[in-house]
Amino acid sequence: MPPECAQLHQPQATTPASQPRWNYEEIAFAIDVPAGGNCPAAAWSPSGAPTTTAP
Questions:
Q1: pLDDT of 8
Q2: pLDDT given for residue 53 in this prediction
Q3: Phi-psi domain of 47 (left: phi exceeds 0; alpha: psi -120 through 50; beta: other)
Q4: What is the rounded distance in angstroms from the CA atom of residue 43 to the CA atom of residue 50?
Q5: How many C-beta atoms surround the C-beta of residue 29 within 10 A?
Q6: What does DSSP assign to residue 33?
Q7: Which of 11, 16, 34, 50 meets the CB 3.0–4.6 Å disulfide criterion with 22?
Q8: CA distance 36 to 32
Q9: CA atoms within 13 A on the CB side of 12
Q10: In degrees rounded to 5, what are phi and psi of residue 36?
Q11: What is the chain's pLDDT, residue by residue, as a tens digit (55 residues)?
Q12: CA–CA distance, 2 with 19 (Å, rounded to integer)
């Protein structure tokens, strides 16, 4: 687990349930990281237009 994820899990594990705390529920989304400055071919486009890469 990446350190930033562990930091989100720790307060729930160390804070009593009777106290206000952060409660981790689920992974809501994930992304494909561009490789070499190019988006993956299967990258989703909200407008339905083809995706392009920045110059």
A1: 78
A2: 60
A3: alpha
A4: 9
A5: 4
A6: P
A7: 11
A8: 12
A9: 9
A10: 65, 25
A11: 778 878 878 888 888 989 998 787 877 777 777 778 777 777 666 655 555 665 5
A12: 26
In the numeric block, the tokens 């992974």 are attached to: 27
Distance CA 17, CA 14 (A): 9
- For residues 29, 33, 34 and 36, what is the CA-based torsion angle, rounded to 10 degrees? 180
Contact residues for 15 (Cβ-Cβ < 8 A; gap 6+): 21, 22
Amino acid at 38: N
Scan for tokens 């989304």, then name that residue: 29
CA distance 37 to 4: 24
